[in-house]
Amino acid sequence: MILVTGATGFVGQEVVKNLIITGHDVRACARQDGIVFHPNAHIFKVGNLSENTDWHSALQNLDVVIHLAARVHVMTEHTSGSLTEFRKVNTAATLNLARQAIDAGVKRFVFISSIKVNGEDTNNGLKFSPNDIHVPTDPYGLSKYEAEQGLLKLAEETNMEVVIIRSPLVYGVGVRANFLSMMQWVNKGIPLPFGSIHNKRSLVALDNLVSFIIHCIEHPKAANEVFLISDGEDVSTTELLQQVAKAFGKKIFLLPVPVGLMRFFAKLLGKEDVANRLFGSLQVDSSKARDLLDWKPVITMDEQLKKIADVFARNKNT
Asked: Given 37, 140, 227, 248, which residue is catalytic?
Protein backbone atom coordinates (compact mmCIF):
# COMPACT_ATOMS: atom_id res chain seq x y z
CA MET A 1 0.00 0.00 0.00
CA ILE A 2 1.24 3.48 -0.94
CA LEU A 3 0.14 6.77 0.62
CA VAL A 4 0.18 9.82 -1.67
CA THR A 5 -0.09 13.21 0.03
CA GLY A 6 -1.03 16.21 -2.08
CA ALA A 7 -3.12 13.78 -4.11
CA THR A 8 -5.51 16.49 -5.32
CA GLY A 9 -2.73 18.54 -6.88
CA PHE A 10 -1.42 18.89 -10.42
CA VAL A 11 1.22 16.18 -9.93
CA GLY A 12 -0.57 14.21 -7.23
CA GLN A 13 -3.63 13.30 -9.29
CA GLU A 14 -1.42 11.94 -12.06
CA VAL A 15 0.71 9.97 -9.57
CA VAL A 16 -2.40 8.34 -8.09
CA LYS A 17 -3.78 7.45 -11.51
CA ASN A 18 -0.53 5.93 -12.74
CA LEU A 19 0.12 3.98 -9.55
CA ILE A 20 -3.26 2.30 -9.88
CA ILE A 21 -2.71 1.62 -13.58
CA THR A 22 0.57 -0.10 -12.70
CA GLY A 23 -1.15 -2.33 -10.14
CA HIS A 24 -0.41 -0.59 -6.83
CA ASP A 25 -2.77 -0.21 -3.88
CA VAL A 26 -3.13 3.52 -3.24
CA ARG A 27 -4.32 5.59 -0.31
CA ALA A 28 -4.90 9.14 -1.60
CA CYS A 29 -4.62 11.91 0.96
CA ALA A 30 -7.02 14.79 0.21
CA ARG A 31 -7.93 18.03 1.97
CA GLN A 32 -10.90 18.89 -0.23
CA ASP A 33 -14.03 17.31 -1.65
CA GLY A 34 -14.96 17.18 -5.31
CA ILE A 35 -11.80 15.55 -6.70
CA VAL A 36 -12.66 12.43 -8.66
CA PHE A 37 -10.01 9.78 -8.13
CA HIS A 38 -9.76 6.40 -9.74
CA PRO A 39 -12.49 4.20 -8.16
CA ASN A 40 -9.80 1.88 -6.78
CA ALA A 41 -8.11 4.62 -4.75
CA HIS A 42 -8.70 4.64 -0.98
CA ILE A 43 -9.38 8.19 0.21
CA PHE A 44 -7.95 9.57 3.44
CA LYS A 45 -9.16 13.02 4.47
CA VAL A 46 -6.77 15.26 6.39
CA GLY A 47 -7.02 18.86 7.55
CA ASN A 48 -4.33 21.48 7.35
CA LEU A 49 -0.83 20.01 7.52
CA SER A 50 1.13 20.82 10.65
CA GLU A 51 3.57 19.36 13.13
CA ASN A 52 0.56 18.05 15.04
CA THR A 53 -1.33 16.29 12.22
CA ASP A 54 -2.32 12.77 13.25
CA TRP A 55 -1.44 10.31 10.48
CA HIS A 56 -1.98 7.15 12.51
CA SER A 57 -4.91 5.70 10.57
CA ALA A 58 -3.48 6.68 7.18
CA LEU A 59 -0.18 4.91 7.84
CA GLN A 60 -1.52 1.51 8.87
CA ASN A 61 -0.32 -1.43 6.73
CA LEU A 62 1.66 0.94 4.53
CA ASP A 63 4.90 0.31 2.64
CA VAL A 64 5.67 3.65 0.97
CA VAL A 65 4.83 7.33 1.46
CA ILE A 66 5.03 9.69 -1.53
CA HIS A 67 4.97 13.15 0.00
CA LEU A 68 3.87 15.79 -2.50
CA ALA A 69 1.83 18.05 -0.22
CA ALA A 70 3.49 21.42 0.38
CA ARG A 71 3.01 25.12 0.80
CA VAL A 72 3.87 26.19 -2.72
CA HIS A 73 6.22 28.96 -3.73
CA VAL A 74 4.68 32.40 -4.32
CA MET A 75 7.09 34.88 -5.89
CA THR A 76 5.89 37.81 -3.76
CA GLU A 77 6.53 36.03 -0.45
CA HIS A 78 9.93 37.11 0.83
CA THR A 79 9.22 38.21 4.40
CA SER A 80 10.34 36.54 7.59
CA GLY A 81 6.67 35.80 8.28
CA SER A 82 6.37 33.85 5.05
CA LEU A 83 9.41 31.76 6.07
CA THR A 84 7.60 30.82 9.27
CA GLU A 85 4.57 29.68 7.28
CA PHE A 86 6.68 27.72 4.80
CA ARG A 87 8.50 25.99 7.65
CA LYS A 88 5.24 24.99 9.35
CA VAL A 89 4.09 23.01 6.31
CA ASN A 90 7.18 22.14 4.30
CA THR A 91 9.52 21.36 7.18
CA ALA A 92 7.74 20.66 10.47
CA ALA A 93 4.74 18.91 8.93
CA THR A 94 6.96 16.82 6.66
CA LEU A 95 9.15 15.63 9.53
CA ASN A 96 6.08 14.94 11.66
CA LEU A 97 4.73 12.67 8.91
CA ALA A 98 8.11 10.98 8.51
CA ARG A 99 8.46 10.24 12.23
CA GLN A 100 4.98 8.74 12.36
CA ALA A 101 5.77 6.74 9.22
CA ILE A 102 8.84 5.29 10.98
CA ASP A 103 6.71 4.32 13.99
CA ALA A 104 4.22 2.64 11.61
CA GLY A 105 6.94 0.58 9.94
CA VAL A 106 6.90 2.36 6.57
CA LYS A 107 9.82 1.14 4.46
CA ARG A 108 10.42 4.09 2.13
CA PHE A 109 9.60 7.82 2.15
CA VAL A 110 9.73 9.59 -1.24
CA PHE A 111 9.95 13.36 -0.79
CA ILE A 112 9.26 15.71 -3.69
CA SER A 113 11.49 18.70 -3.09
CA SER A 114 12.45 21.57 -5.41
CA ILE A 115 15.37 22.72 -7.52
CA LYS A 116 15.26 25.90 -5.42
CA VAL A 117 17.27 23.94 -2.85
CA ASN A 118 20.17 24.21 -5.33
CA GLY A 119 19.59 27.88 -6.14
CA GLU A 120 17.81 30.31 -8.41
CA ASP A 121 19.91 30.19 -11.60
CA THR A 122 22.98 28.79 -13.32
CA ASN A 123 25.63 30.53 -15.40
CA ASN A 124 28.17 29.80 -18.13
CA GLY A 125 26.71 26.46 -19.11
CA LEU A 126 27.09 25.01 -15.62
CA LYS A 127 24.38 22.71 -14.28
CA PHE A 128 23.06 22.07 -10.80
CA SER A 129 23.92 18.62 -9.45
CA PRO A 130 22.62 16.58 -6.50
CA ASN A 131 25.95 17.07 -4.70
CA ASP A 132 25.93 20.88 -4.73
CA ILE A 133 26.48 22.40 -1.29
CA HIS A 134 24.15 25.37 -0.99
CA VAL A 135 21.89 26.76 1.71
CA PRO A 136 18.98 28.63 0.07
CA THR A 137 17.92 32.10 1.18
CA ASP A 138 14.53 31.95 -0.53
CA PRO A 139 11.90 31.04 2.14
CA TYR A 140 10.36 28.24 0.06
CA GLY A 141 13.72 26.78 -0.93
CA LEU A 142 15.02 27.00 2.64
CA SER A 143 11.98 25.20 4.05
CA LYS A 144 12.48 22.39 1.53
CA TYR A 145 16.21 22.22 2.28
CA GLU A 146 15.55 21.93 6.02
CA ALA A 147 13.02 19.16 5.39
CA GLU A 148 15.59 17.30 3.28
CA GLN A 149 18.23 17.56 5.99
CA GLY A 150 15.80 16.30 8.62
CA LEU A 151 14.72 13.37 6.47
CA LEU A 152 18.29 12.31 5.70
CA LYS A 153 19.08 12.40 9.42
CA LEU A 154 16.07 10.19 10.14
CA ALA A 155 17.25 7.78 7.46
CA GLU A 156 20.63 7.53 9.20
CA GLU A 157 19.03 6.83 12.57
CA THR A 158 16.26 4.41 11.52
CA ASN A 159 15.42 1.65 9.06
CA MET A 160 13.18 3.84 6.87
CA GLU A 161 14.72 4.67 3.49
CA VAL A 162 14.40 8.19 2.10
CA VAL A 163 14.39 9.27 -1.55
CA ILE A 164 14.59 12.99 -2.37
CA ILE A 165 13.57 14.27 -5.80
CA ARG A 166 14.28 17.89 -6.74
CA SER A 167 12.27 19.10 -9.69
CA PRO A 168 12.48 22.23 -11.87
CA LEU A 169 9.36 23.63 -13.54
CA VAL A 170 6.82 20.89 -14.28
CA TYR A 171 4.56 21.23 -17.32
CA GLY A 172 1.74 19.05 -18.58
CA VAL A 173 -2.01 18.80 -18.92
CA GLY A 174 -3.51 20.92 -16.14
CA VAL A 175 -0.50 23.21 -15.70
CA ARG A 176 -1.32 26.66 -14.35
CA ALA A 177 0.31 30.00 -13.52
CA ASN A 178 2.92 31.48 -15.88
CA PHE A 179 3.22 28.43 -18.13
CA LEU A 180 -0.53 28.44 -18.74
CA SER A 181 -0.46 32.18 -19.51
CA MET A 182 2.37 31.64 -21.99
CA MET A 183 0.43 28.94 -23.81
CA GLN A 184 -2.65 31.14 -23.97
CA TRP A 185 -0.61 34.00 -25.47
CA VAL A 186 0.79 31.69 -28.15
CA ASN A 187 -2.60 30.13 -28.88
CA LYS A 188 -4.12 33.57 -29.43
CA GLY A 189 -1.32 34.60 -31.79
CA ILE A 190 -0.31 37.59 -29.65
CA PRO A 191 3.06 39.07 -30.77
CA LEU A 192 5.63 38.66 -28.00
CA PRO A 193 8.93 40.51 -27.41
CA PHE A 194 10.88 37.30 -26.78
CA GLY A 195 12.57 36.63 -30.10
CA SER A 196 16.17 37.05 -28.98
CA ILE A 197 16.60 35.18 -25.68
CA HIS A 198 19.58 32.86 -25.50
CA ASN A 199 19.24 31.39 -22.02
CA LYS A 200 18.95 27.67 -21.22
CA ARG A 201 16.37 26.19 -18.86
CA SER A 202 15.68 22.63 -17.76
CA LEU A 203 12.06 21.58 -17.42
CA VAL A 204 10.38 18.28 -16.64
CA ALA A 205 7.27 16.96 -18.34
CA LEU A 206 4.54 15.80 -15.97
CA ASP A 207 4.64 12.32 -17.51
CA ASN A 208 8.40 12.10 -16.94
CA LEU A 209 8.23 13.27 -13.33
CA VAL A 210 5.44 10.81 -12.51
CA SER A 211 7.33 8.01 -14.21
CA PHE A 212 10.44 8.76 -12.16
CA ILE A 213 8.53 9.00 -8.87
CA ILE A 214 7.04 5.56 -9.46
CA HIS A 215 10.45 4.26 -10.54
CA CYS A 216 11.81 5.33 -7.13
CA ILE A 217 9.23 3.42 -5.11
CA GLU A 218 11.05 0.10 -5.14
CA HIS A 219 14.40 0.53 -6.90
CA PRO A 220 17.02 -0.61 -4.35
CA LYS A 221 19.62 1.91 -5.50
CA ALA A 222 17.27 4.87 -4.87
CA ALA A 223 17.49 4.42 -1.10
CA ASN A 224 18.80 7.48 0.76
CA GLU A 225 19.73 9.30 -2.44
CA VAL A 226 19.04 12.78 -3.81
CA PHE A 227 18.03 13.09 -7.47
CA LEU A 228 17.58 16.00 -9.87
CA ILE A 229 15.11 15.25 -12.64
CA SER A 230 14.50 16.86 -16.05
CA ASP A 231 13.58 16.00 -19.62
CA GLY A 232 17.20 16.34 -20.71
CA GLU A 233 16.12 18.84 -23.40
CA ASP A 234 17.25 22.26 -22.16
CA VAL A 235 15.71 25.12 -24.15
CA SER A 236 15.81 28.89 -24.31
CA THR A 237 12.63 30.86 -23.70
CA THR A 238 12.55 31.64 -27.43
CA GLU A 239 12.87 27.95 -28.33
CA LEU A 240 10.20 26.96 -25.83
CA LEU A 241 7.72 29.45 -27.29
CA GLN A 242 8.47 28.13 -30.77
CA GLN A 243 7.85 24.55 -29.63
CA VAL A 244 4.57 25.56 -27.95
CA ALA A 245 3.46 27.24 -31.20
CA LYS A 246 4.35 24.10 -33.14
CA ALA A 247 2.25 21.98 -30.76
CA PHE A 248 -0.72 24.30 -31.20
CA GLY A 249 -0.24 24.51 -34.96
CA LYS A 250 0.05 28.30 -34.73
CA LYS A 251 2.29 30.88 -36.31
CA ILE A 252 4.24 32.79 -33.70
CA PHE A 253 5.44 36.39 -33.88
CA LEU A 254 8.50 36.90 -31.69
CA LEU A 255 10.02 40.37 -31.75
CA PRO A 256 13.81 40.57 -31.08
CA VAL A 257 13.63 43.07 -28.22
CA PRO A 258 16.98 43.32 -26.33
CA VAL A 259 16.94 41.40 -23.05
CA GLY A 260 18.68 44.25 -21.22
CA LEU A 261 15.86 46.61 -22.11
CA MET A 262 13.20 44.16 -20.95
CA ARG A 263 15.06 43.58 -17.68
CA PHE A 264 15.20 47.36 -17.13
CA PHE A 265 11.44 47.76 -17.48
CA ALA A 266 10.79 44.62 -15.40
CA LYS A 267 12.82 46.15 -12.57
CA LEU A 268 10.84 49.40 -12.81
CA LEU A 269 7.61 47.40 -12.52
CA GLY A 270 8.85 45.29 -9.62
CA LYS A 271 8.84 42.12 -11.76
CA GLU A 272 12.48 41.07 -11.40
CA ASP A 273 11.51 37.52 -10.39
CA VAL A 274 9.42 37.13 -13.54
CA ALA A 275 12.27 38.51 -15.64
CA ASN A 276 14.73 36.04 -14.11
CA ARG A 277 12.47 33.15 -15.05
CA LEU A 278 12.06 34.42 -18.60
CA PHE A 279 15.63 35.50 -19.31
CA GLY A 280 17.86 33.64 -16.85
CA SER A 281 19.29 30.14 -17.15
CA LEU A 282 18.56 27.23 -14.85
CA GLN A 283 20.00 23.89 -15.90
CA VAL A 284 20.09 20.64 -13.97
CA ASP A 285 22.21 17.55 -14.38
CA SER A 286 19.78 14.62 -14.22
CA SER A 287 22.34 12.00 -15.28
CA LYS A 288 22.28 10.36 -11.83
CA ALA A 289 18.61 9.46 -12.31
CA ARG A 290 19.42 7.86 -15.63
CA ASP A 291 22.71 6.17 -14.76
CA LEU A 292 22.15 4.94 -11.21
CA LEU A 293 18.51 3.89 -11.63
CA ASP A 294 18.56 3.12 -15.36
CA TRP A 295 15.59 5.45 -15.86
CA LYS A 296 14.71 7.04 -19.20
CA PRO A 297 12.20 9.80 -20.03
CA VAL A 298 8.92 8.33 -21.22
CA ILE A 299 7.92 11.37 -23.29
CA THR A 300 9.65 14.13 -25.25
CA MET A 301 8.97 17.84 -24.79
CA ASP A 302 7.24 18.00 -28.17
CA GLU A 303 4.99 15.06 -27.24
CA GLN A 304 4.05 16.52 -23.85
CA LEU A 305 3.28 19.92 -25.38
CA LYS A 306 1.13 18.22 -28.03
CA LYS A 307 -0.87 16.47 -25.29
CA ILE A 308 -1.51 19.86 -23.67
CA ALA A 309 -2.53 21.40 -27.01
CA ASP A 310 -4.92 18.53 -27.74
CA VAL A 311 -6.68 19.05 -24.39
CA PHE A 312 -6.89 22.81 -25.11
CA ALA A 313 -8.56 22.02 -28.44
CA ARG A 314 -11.03 19.54 -26.92
CA ASN A 315 -12.01 21.95 -24.15
CA LYS A 316 -12.49 24.73 -26.68
CA ASN A 317 -14.91 22.58 -28.66
CA THR A 318 -17.02 21.47 -25.70
From this structure: 140
Q: pLDDT at residue 134 above 70?
A: yes
Q: Is 140 a catalytic residue?
A: yes
At 77, is the pLDDT very low, low, confident or very high (cuts 50, 70, 90)? very low
Q: Is 86 exposed, middle or buried (0-12, 13-18, 19+ CB in 10 A)?
A: buried
Do residue 41 and residue 107 come from a single domain?
yes
Same domain? 118 vs 213: yes
Domain that holds residue 134: 2-173+203-232+283-298
Spell out the alpha helix ranges (H) of 189-286. Answer: 206-215, 237-248, 259-268, 272-279
Contact 42, 84 (CB under 8 A): no
Mean pLDDT of 187-191: 90
CATH of the domain at 288: 3.40.50.720
Query: How many domains does one find in the chain?
Result: 2
What is the reported pTM? 0.93
pLDDT band at residue 171 using 50, 70 and 90 as cut-offs: very high
Residues in the chain, total: 318
User: Does one domain contain both 98 and 208?
Assistant: yes
